[in-house]
User: Fold Fur family transcriptional regulator from Pontibacter rugosus.
Amino acid sequence: MLEELETRLKSRRIRPTAMRLLVLEILQKQTAAVSLQDLEAAFVKADKVTIYRTLKTFEEKGLVHCIEDGTGIRKYALCEEGCVCAPEDVHVHFYCKGCKETYCLPTSKVPAVPMPERFRKVEANLLVQGFCSLCDG
Ligand SMILES: [Zn+2]
Ligand SMILES: [Zn+2]
Ligand SMILES: [Zn+2]
Assistant:
């Protein structure tokens, strides 16, 4: 298990430290995206700044991606293997209006949007809102 975590960090050129391994372990257990606050709650000791820096490193190295789900709270989820977070890699996100969780939909890619000549695309977000299977009933 630990070895698996280390390999995952190393595959993204992230030096495995105790803190990074812990954060990755927590992220791997999530079914929904987590906010910085969620992560802080999972730690008794580690301070905010350290957790934030760890997430930033993960984001810069393409291990996690940040999600804007319209709540104003930045959420993070693990990237798929081989993701380079390019516009053509980006998948749709789903925000559940019931449990207020945000989910990655890795099999649903954001469709290519034709750009007029004077515009250059840098990133694209597509958020679908609705109810997850647990809340729809
Ligand atoms: Zn990514
Ligand atoms: Zn839900
Ligand atoms: Zn995602």
User: Anything to note?
Assistant: The first helix runs from residue 2 to 10. The chain has a mean pLDDT of 92. The first strand starts at residue 34 and ends at 35. Residues 62, 65, 79, 83, 85, 89 surround zinc ion (ligand 1) (CB under 6 Å).
